[in-house]
Predict the 3D structure of the following.
Amino acid sequence: MRILLAEDDPLLGDGLRTGLRQLGFQVDWVRDGAAALRELQTESYAAAVLDLGLPRLDGLDVLLRARSSGITTPILALTARDALPQRVRGLDAGADDYVVKPIDLTELAARLRALVRRSHGQPREQLQAQGVVLDPAARTVHKDGEAVTLSTREFDLLHALMLNPGRVLTRDQLEQRLYAWGREVESNAVEVHIHHLRRKLGNTLIVTVRGVGYTLGAS
């Protein structure tokens, strides 16, 4: 899943980007609040990690402006350990959750997955459809109890569709969920991934809505 990271500390930002990528996230990293707000307004993210002490535009202002303009992206705020008033203001301004520094990467990843899951109305960590079980934390997929090996892109595409049952996602929407900045996207990449998923998981799991996009088939 693609997330936005807004953190001005170069060492912390690089460490978070690297660590989250290793855990399966696609990460776009900005270093000031103005850039964070611009990205939230113009790009599609599963979630955002927002340091509340950003330059150019304070993280609290980013939250307030984003929510007042109707942006519903789940936002997890980063705060200092002794900044209880800041955490309260952040939650009141529209943050969905927070993590205190120093950051435990596994906790951050788990909280991000929970935010995304809740934002899509999914009560359980594991997603299921037509005998397919996807575990976002372990990044595993099983079909009728048997493990299925997927590439990173195949997993992320299937995850996006299973988070949105009953909704048709266009190719552009899927590409936005699969690729962070600087990743070249081939013109038929989504179609190729869909083909591979159907070969591995069956032809009825993913339905093509001609002229629109793709959706999960009825269970």
In short: The mean pLDDT is 91.
